[in-house]
Automatic annotation (TrEMBL), chain A:
It comes from Coffea canephora. GO terms for molecular function: protein heterodimerization activity. Belongs to the TAF8 family. GO terms for cellular component: transcription factor TFIID complex. Pfam families: Bromo_TP, TAF8_C. Residues 29-105 form the Bromodomain associated domain. This is Transcription initiation factor TFIID subunit 8. It is found in: Nucleus. InterPro entries: BTP (IPR006565), Histone-fold (IPR009072), TAF8 (IPR037818), TFIID_su8_C (IPR019473). Keywords: Nucleus, Transcription, Transcription regulation.
From TrEMBL, chain B:
Residues 1-14 have a biased composition (Low complexity). Keywords: Nucleus, Transcription, Transcription regulation. It comes from the Eukaryota. Its main location: nucleus. InterPro entries: TAF10 (IPR003923). Pfam families: TAF10. TAFs are components of the transcription factor IID (TFIID) complex that is essential for mediating regulation of RNA polymerase transcription. This is Transcription initiation factor TFIID subunit 10. It comes from Coffea arabica. The keyword Transport does not apply. It is found in: Nucleus. Belongs to the TAF10 family. Residues 1-23 are annotated as: Disordered.
Length: 376, 146
């Protein structure tokens, strides 16, 4: 018994499992352990446990993995002893018997037992019959996943013949010479300086045009003042502003008679005369707005050439009540033509004045409305 | 192979023994066939992975299932022992207070119960301090469980 006791103690020492809380695991190993954890948890649940301590679960799953590995090792060692590389059912049963000796198995004492009659196997058969079948919770992919490596193509596959005779063509091909040898680089593109210049000039002109139209639009949108008295040809504006970013007030002055300007009577308060630089620039500035009023809100940025009529007929338009202020303003402006008050619009580019006049018009309009209402 | 030679030497007793062997063979093959119906909790892929790691080479699925079932039985036995330990501890507490029993109704797998259950299978669990950073049993188990 003392011998047995010693043996037992020796065995005990062997079966020490060291558990390290700080463990770094890697790759397929971690995945395998995680799955083992889940499987073990399921088994314990079926036995009757309701919850687990994390450390207990981890250690038990670790033991399960070890059991698995050891069973495989034992079985393979038995197969090797019998002179085989592939394992048998008998190898497994013998391995199971080895492990079963720890706990004691029915019929273990019989030395010459046929493997098939082993007690361990019988126990397992009983277990399979009695125990509940619990399939694993989730589908498990085949692991570890072997990534298909991209192989270097052989000489044959590349269609090359190896330089040296001793190299067979089924070997992987050599890398291209440009990968390890410095070769000269030629600039393939043919440069045409003249074409480049033309292209550059064209792009510049395009940019100028777009900037110009943008400015026109801005002026048109910001300007509510409308007048149909004068129209300006637009190309003159283009000439006046070669660079759209330039201040229009600083543009070059036009010669007298260069532009067709309507015979407007400017009040004396205006410093510059009709041929003056500022005046022309103002006219230009309002030209798109005028155009917009005439033609409608559609086109304002295109080059529209308009000839100024020599004689401007006085147009009297009747507008219904309840019109927009814009329409009313136009009406009033038209009516006031004869009096020459329209010119004052150009003269007084004062915002405050504008608003004041607008307010006056609105008042008059309301007065008229009231009158018409009373008529009804 | 000893068993067969002994049986052959027995002469008249051969027939029932041979028949017995045939029965056993039949039982084994039946059992292996029944394994295909039974799905063990431990998935086949996991078992295959670890068996391949340890040198076990066999294309037969039934053997893989057999190993899985054996492992499952082992773990179930250990868990059952731990459960008995847990229940035994709970029953010792009953006499103190009824309220405590209500709280402790949940059966939790603890390290203590587990180590006691594993002691019966001759497995000792030792906790190493945090100073040792590298794990000592990452891939190869230090210990054979014999």
């Amino acid at each position: 018994m003392s011998d047995g006791g010693n043996e037992e103690s020796a065995r005990e020492i062997e079966n020490v499992i060291e558990i390290n809380p700080v463990i770094s695991r890697s790759g397929a190993n971690e995945f395998g352990r995680a799955i083992a954890k889940i499987a073990v948890a399921q088994i314990c649940e079926s036995v009757g446990f309701e919850s687990f301590n994390e450390s207990a679960l981890e250690s038990l799953s670790d033991i399960a993995v070890r059991y698995l590995c050891d069973l495989g090792k034992t079985a393979s060692s038995y197969a090797n002893s019998a002179g085989r590389t592939a394992c048998n059912v008998f190898d497994i049963i013998q391995g199971m018997e080895d492990f079963g000796l720890l706990r004691g198995v029915l019929g273990a004492s019989e030395a010459h037992n046929c493997v098939i009659e082993s007690g361990a196997l019988r126990e397992i058969m009983d277990y399979v019959e009695c125990a509940e079948e619990i399939p694993f919770a989730q589908p498990v992919p085949q692991f570890p996943v072997v990534r298909a490596r991209k192989l270097i193509p052989s000489f044959l596959q590349m269609g090359e013949t190896p330089e040296f005779k001793q190299i067979p063509d089924w070997l992987p091909a050599f890398p291209d010479p440009h990968t390890y040898r410095h070769s000269p680089v030629w600039n393939e593109r043919v440069t045409d300086p003249r074409a480049d210049k033309i292209e550059l000039a064209r792009q510049r002109r395009k940019a100028e045009r777009s900037l110009l139209s943008l400015q026109q639009r801005l002026v048109c949108n910001g300007d509510v003042i409308a007048s149909t008295s004068t129209t300006e040809p637009h190309d003159s504006k283009l000439e006046m502003q070669p660079n759209a970013s330039e201040n229009p007030f600083l543009a070059k002055p036009l010669q007298a008679g260069e532009k067709d300007v309507s015979p407007v009577i400017l009040p004396d308060t205006v410093r510059n005369q009709a041929d003056g630089e500022n005046h022309i620039s103002l006219l230009e500035a309002f030209a798109p707005a005028i155009e917009a009023m005439k033609d409608g809100p559609s086109e304002s940025g295109h080059d529209v050439e308009k000839t100024l009529p020599d004689k401007r007929p006085a147009v009297c338009l009747e507008f219904k009540t309840g019109k927009k202020v814009l329409g009313d303003l136009l009406d009033l402006r038209l009516r006031n033509r004869g009096s020459g008050r329209t010119a004052s619009w150009f003269g007084h580019n004062d915002e405050k004045d504008d608003k004041k006049r607008r307010a006056e018009f609105i008042l008059r309009q309301s007065m008229e409305n009231q009158q018409e209402l009373t008529q009804l | 192979m000893n068993a067969t030679s002994q049986q052959q030497g027995q002469g008249q007793q051969q027939h029932p023994n041979i028949e017995g062997r045939h029965d056993d063979d039949a039982a084994l093959s039946e059992f292996l066939a029944s394994l295909m119906d039974y799905t063990p909790t431990i998935p086949d892929e996991l078992v295959e992975h670890y068996l391949a790691k340890s040198g076990f080479q066999c294309p037969d699925v039934r053997l893989v299932r057999l190993v899985a079932v054996a492992t499952q039985k082992f773990i179930a036995d250990v868990a059952t022992d731990a459960l008995q330990q847990c229940k035994a501890r709970q029953s010792a507490v009953i006499k103190d207070k009824r309220e405590k029993q209500q709280k402790d109704k949940r059966l939790i797998l603890t390290m203590e119960d587990l180590s006691r259950a594993l002691h019966e299978v001759n497995i000792k669990i030792v906790l190493i301090s945090d100073n040792i950073q590298k794990s000592s049993f990452q891939d190869d188990p230090i210990v054979m469980m014999k």
